[in-house]
């Protein structure tokens, strides 16, 4: 019995640290609608600064003072980030801020190694909480008890802050309806800055408080960020109590789950989230979002198909791209093939995000399923390559049909998070089912047949498929189906009123996007000759999001440019420098500030200002040239 | 679209450098090296210093058959797909004579499969998975570091002498952890049929929730524990375990913990008396190692980690293979490497013909704390050749070429 009590308390201690970070994220999202990907980075910087301070100033005062000072210092950094960077892009399309914070995260990961060195750092134990308390023969670390008390105390302070101060009233009002708050004359700028500072403070405090239990290292941020998002969504976005309950729920399920299924930790939070979101679409304590006033469609110039001249020009450029093998060597051609594949992947997500208004955080699942489809067909069934390429993406299609059915019941960030949960579930199956998928050692030896084996042939294959896919999806955008899909994106109510079955339309779009991504994955398997769980992983999903956002989410084919620029830059930087994350992150941040509508979105706007008539075609026009690199 | 022009420029620059390098090829020999520099700097920084030292020494001694040795190094970001892109660049654009490096097992396998497909010689430096030389071995791939099986066998030798009968295991939930545990269990149960496996914990790699894990293991009340976690997970596990008294009165056998990379961060919280594999650079007194240590400390003013040894020996071995082959033809490199013996800071090692595994060994000893730092004591070197299964067994494990 004593054991179960202690296990419960241990779970509570884990919950407390999770809650601190999650509450900050929840507050920031609730008010500013920023999906703050950099929250983990702030958590990590908090730990690093706390390490430096507590290392230098010993003693109880030095330790606790150091923890608080570190959190304050990071909050200050947060204020600077908000004022210099985020303030410029609040009016950018939804999720664009994600791109900015993603860039920051990349930079921070390299910066901490530059500043604090590559080794894992061991912070001091907390003075006064070094030992353990005996509980009927079981030891409970006294620091755990401290954390168990701290969690509810922070919850209480936040509750008082939100319920009993004017600032709290404003924050709650903004969480519910920020346009209304602005209309009533509240200075939103400072409200947002202060909210961001509080959120970052909590993240950094959470990180700083980890140093007596953890090692401080440069991958801390990734370790926590996804989990924290999940906790926030399970609890219900913007709900502090929800975040607390969700943190406790997840931690306790983990603490007791490992007694029965020792391998459950890897997937537990995502399972819980999937179940919660299917049963309660807005999380445990969340409320349905008020209908959005600003629809993404309103800020866009009406989309139109290419004129015949533009089509000819696009074709000409495609022909030029197809001539690349005449001048380029094997390496350039292979990189070209990889870029063409990522164009397919990005375009498929773009179809879902821009046309359907459904941002998926787990799009890599369908890319990876397509790749695994190929691996199964080629390695186990021994089918010829053409058959594999035709059938392999069907696994992506199947996955999209099943998961899409559940996902399209939701919208906005909840949709995004449910897709993420499904992707993680698929990933963990690939990762765990070693006898079938080879686990993280993957499936090797999936090489193309002779006719496609040479880099130039494969390049032509990839380029051809990418061109076909881009054209097909463009046709879909301007088909009656595309119009219906855009109608559901722009106004759910009105589209329903004219008889459009929104869920079925969205589900169809989801399946189309998933299948297309599967085609990309299928080609990718042959390009690399192997398939790994990485191909289904979060970082690939994030890459896809970044490509779409970089190109411009409000454009017809911006993803093409986004994919080319991002992938080419990424490959080139990784090859040139070990600090590729720092440079790439800085580049993304710069793009975000200079091109708040994405690269193509900005070009279109510039062209329009000049009264130039041909801009929307530029996306497709420029594509083959760039894929040539 | 300034970026676009830039990339056209970059592409041409690549082409141009490819042509230039073929013209200069008579004067130098290039090795292409790949590792997870940005993802795992704690291990790869000392590793890089190690191979840079080796390159310097080789060229100071006149290069390889009179040609200058050049190592072109690429980061793989910890992703198998990116490692293949890098391998392709090295082979297609840089025209390297062979590939070397990699740390993570899945990346090692991806590059090894690439090498097999493109018929390029590959010397895997650090990946531990047995699959590299056995179940997924191929004729183009050789491996330097003692494999999972070898390290397990070394630990089992010591562990089987312990009186403990009830064992629990804690390992990261991925291929490395799983195969380490399964080999250890198999070998251990062969030597000691009387032992019982009472609990196993599989925290996700890099994300251990140490409190509940420690508590769960303690609840099973084992007499001994096998640990396979490393890095930040190990730190958390040790801290929770120390506080909660998990290790008190229990024997612990632990993979890799004696390597400075993983032992040093534990500082004064290093647990006493764990049986570990590792690299006690401070207590190795052989002329070969002394020479290495002196050169390393003179160049970097820092002590070597195990990664330094691996990096150093990877390039030294590669140079020996290239020198013996007298050619960069992959088939000749394979012929030269099979059965080749080279000196190393740990003494002479041999690349076995049967499975392309080197006989580099490891040190097994016990952890202890001295002056607030973790060290290995009572350590002794275990030759790799003594901890490999019989040739008949290896032949069964390895696919025919």
TrEMBL record, chain A:
Give a GO molecular function annotation for the protein.
branched-chain amino acid transmembrane transporter activity
- Please give the start and end residues of each transmembrane region: 6-27, 34-51, 63-86, 98-117, 145-162, 190-212, 224-249, 256-279, 312-333, 340-361, 381-406, 413-434, 458-485, 505-527, 547-569, 581-600
Instruction: Report the GO terms under cellular component.
Output: plasma membrane
Name the domain of life: Bacteria
> Pfam families this protein is in?
BPD_transp_2 (PF02653)
What GO terms describe the biological role, i.e. biological process, of this protein?
amino acid transport
Q: Where is this region: Disordered?
A: 610-629
Q: Which cellular compartments is it found in?
A: Cell membrane
Which UniProt keyword terms apply here? Amino-acid transport, Cell membrane, Membrane, Transmembrane, Transmembrane helix, Transport
Membrane topology, from the record: Multi-pass membrane protein
Which protein family is it in?
Answer: Belongs to the binding-protein-dependent transport system permease family. LivHM subfamily.
UniProt-recorded name of the protein: ABC transporter permease
Q: Can you name the source organism?
A: Bradyrhizobium centrolobii
From TrEMBL, chain B:
**UniProt-recorded name of the protein:** ABC transporter substrate-binding protein
InterPro entries, sorted? BCAA_transport (IPR051010), Leu-bd (IPR028081), Leu_Ile_Val-bd (IPR000709), Peripla_BP_I (IPR028082)
Could you list this entry's UniProt keywords, alphabetically sorted: Amino-acid transport, Signal, Transport
Query: Could you say which protein family the record assigns here?
Result: Belongs to the leucine-binding protein family.
| UniProt KW Signal keyword | yes
Q: Signal peptide position in this chain?
A: 1-25
- Which residue intervals define the domain Leucine-binding protein in the entry? 29-368
Q: Which Gene3D superfamilies did the record assign? A: 3.40.50.2300
Q: Please name the GO terms of the biological process aspect recorded for this protein, alphabetically.
A: amino acid transport
């Amino acid at each position: 019995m004593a054991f179960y009590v202690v296990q419960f308390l241990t779970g509570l201690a884990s919950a407390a640290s999770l809650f601190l970070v999650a509450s900050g994220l929840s507050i920031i999202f609730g008010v500013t609608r920023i999906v703050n990907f950099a929250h983990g980075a702030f958590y990590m910087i908090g730990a690093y600064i706390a390490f430096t301070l507590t290392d230098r100033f010993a003693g109880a005062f030095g330790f606790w003072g150091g923890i608080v000072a570190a959190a304050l210092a990071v909050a200050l950094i947060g204020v600077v980030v908000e004022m210099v960077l985020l303030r410029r892009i609040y009016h950018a399309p939804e999720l664009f801020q994600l791109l900015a914070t993603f860039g920051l995260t990349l930079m921070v990961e390299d910066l901490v190694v530059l500043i604090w060195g590559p080794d894992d750092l061991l912070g001091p134990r907390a003075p006064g909480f070094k030992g353990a308390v005996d509980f009927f023969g079981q030891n409970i670390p006294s620091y755990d008890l401290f954390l168990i008390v701290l969690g509810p105390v922070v919850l209480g302070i936040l509750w008082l802050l939100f319920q009993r101060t004017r600032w709290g009233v404003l924050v709650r009002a903004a969480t519910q309806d920020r346009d209304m708050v602005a209309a009533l004359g509240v200075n939103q700028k400072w409200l947002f800055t202060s909210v961001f500072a509080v959120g970052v403070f909590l993240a950094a405090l959470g990180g700083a408080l980890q140093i007596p239990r953890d090692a401080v290292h440069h991958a801390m941020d990734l370790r926590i960020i996804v989990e924290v998002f999940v906790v926030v969504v399970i609890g219900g976005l913007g709900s502090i109590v929800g975040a607390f309950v969700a943190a406790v729920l997840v931690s306790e399920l983990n603490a007791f789950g490992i007694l029965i299924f020792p391998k459950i930790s890897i997937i537990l939070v995502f399972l819980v989230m999937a179940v919660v979101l299917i049963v309660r679409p807005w999380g445990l304590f969340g409320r349905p979002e008020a209908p959005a006033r600003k629809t993404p469609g309103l800020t866009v110039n009406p989309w139109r198909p290419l004129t015949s001249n533009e089509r000819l020009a696009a074709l000409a450029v495609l022909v030029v791209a197809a001539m690349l093998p005449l001048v380029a060597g094997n390496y350039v051609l292979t990189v070209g093939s990889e870029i063409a594949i990522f164009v397919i992947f990005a375009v498929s997500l773009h179809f879902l995000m821009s046309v359907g208004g459904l941002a998926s955080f787990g799009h890599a699942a369908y890319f990876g399923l397509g790749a695994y489809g190929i691996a199964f067909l080629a390695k186990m069934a021994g089918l010829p390559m053409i058959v594999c390429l035709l059938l392999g993406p069907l696994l992506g299609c199947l996955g999209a049909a099943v998961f899409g059915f559940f996902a399209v019941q939701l919208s906005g960030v909840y949709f995004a998070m449910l897709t993420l949960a499904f992707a993680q579930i698929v990933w963990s199956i690939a990762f765990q089912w070693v006898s079938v998928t080879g686990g993280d050692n993957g499936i090797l030896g999936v090489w193309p047949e002779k006719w496609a084996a040479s880099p130039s042939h494969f390049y032509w294959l990839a380029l051809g498929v990418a061109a076909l896919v881009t054209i097909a999806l463009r046709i879909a955008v301007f088909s009656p189906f595309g119009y219906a899909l855009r109608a559901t994106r722009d106004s759910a109510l009105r589209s329903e009123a004219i008889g459009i079955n929104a869920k079925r339309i969205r589900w169809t779009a989801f399946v189309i996007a998933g299948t297309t991504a599967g085609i990309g994955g299928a080609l990718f398997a042959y390009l690399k000759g192997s398939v790994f769980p990485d191909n289904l992983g979060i970082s690939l999903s994030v890459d896809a999001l970044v490509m779409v956002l970089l190109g411009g989410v409000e454009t017809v084919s911006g993803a093409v440019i986004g994919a080319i620029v991002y992938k080419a830059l990424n490959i080139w930087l990784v090859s040139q420098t070990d600090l590729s994350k720092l440079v790439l992150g800085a580049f993304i941040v710069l793009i975000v500030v200079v091109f708040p509508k994405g690269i193509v979105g900005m070009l279109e706007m510039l062209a329009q200002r000049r009264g130039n008539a041909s801009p929307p075609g530029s996306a497709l026009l420029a594509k083959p040239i760039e894929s040539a690199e | 679209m300034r970026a676009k022009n830039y990339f056209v420029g970059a592409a041409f620059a690549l082409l141009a450098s490819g042509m230039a390098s073929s013209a200069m090829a008579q004067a130098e020999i290039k090795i292409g090296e790949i590792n997870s520099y940005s993802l795992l700097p704690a291990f790869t920084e000392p590793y890089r210093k190690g191979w840079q030292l080796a390159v310097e020494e080789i060229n100071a001694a006149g290069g390889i058959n009179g040609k200058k040795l050049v190592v072109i190094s690429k980061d793989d970001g910890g992703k198998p797909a990116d490692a293949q892109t890098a391998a392709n660049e090295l082979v297609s654009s840089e025209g390297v004579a062979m590939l070397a490096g990699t740390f993570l097992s899945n990346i090692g396998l991806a590059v090894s499969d690439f090498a097999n497909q493109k018929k390029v010689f590959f010397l895997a430096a650090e990946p531990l998975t047995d699959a590299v030389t056995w179940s997924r071995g191929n004729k183009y791939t050789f491996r330097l570091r003692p494999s999972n099986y070898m390290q397990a066998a070394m630990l089992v030798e010591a562990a089987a002498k312990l009186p403990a009968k009830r064992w629990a295991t804690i390992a990261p939930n991925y291929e490395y952890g799983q195969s380490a545990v399964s080999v250890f269990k198999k070998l251990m149960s062969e030597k000691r049929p009387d032992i019982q496996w009472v609990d196993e914990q599989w925290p996700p790699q890099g994300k251990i929730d140490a409190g509940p894990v420690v508590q769960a293991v303690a609840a099973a009340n084992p007499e001994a524990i096998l640990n396979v976690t490393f890095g930040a997970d190990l730190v958390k596990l040790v801290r929770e375990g120390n506080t909660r008294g998990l290790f008190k009165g229990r024997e612990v056998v632990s993979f890799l913990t004696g390597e400075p990379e993983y032992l040093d961060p534990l500082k004064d919280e290093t647990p006493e008396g764990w049986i570990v594999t590792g690299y006690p650079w401070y207590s190795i007194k052989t002329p070969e190692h002394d020479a290495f240590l002196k050169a390393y400390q003179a160049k970097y003013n820092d002590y070597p980690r195990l990664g330094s040894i691996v990096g150093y020996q990877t390039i030294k071995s590669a140079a020996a293979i290239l020198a013996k082959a007298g050619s960069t033809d992959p088939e000749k490199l394979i012929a030269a490497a099979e059965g080749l013996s080279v000196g190393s800071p740990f003494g002479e090692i041999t690349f076995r013909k049967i499975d392309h595994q080197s006989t580099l060994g490891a040190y097994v000893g016990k952890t202890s704390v001295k002056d607030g730092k973790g060290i290995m004591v009572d350590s002794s070197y275990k030759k790799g050749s003594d901890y490999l299964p019989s040739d008949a067994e290896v032949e069964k494990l390895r696919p025919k070429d």
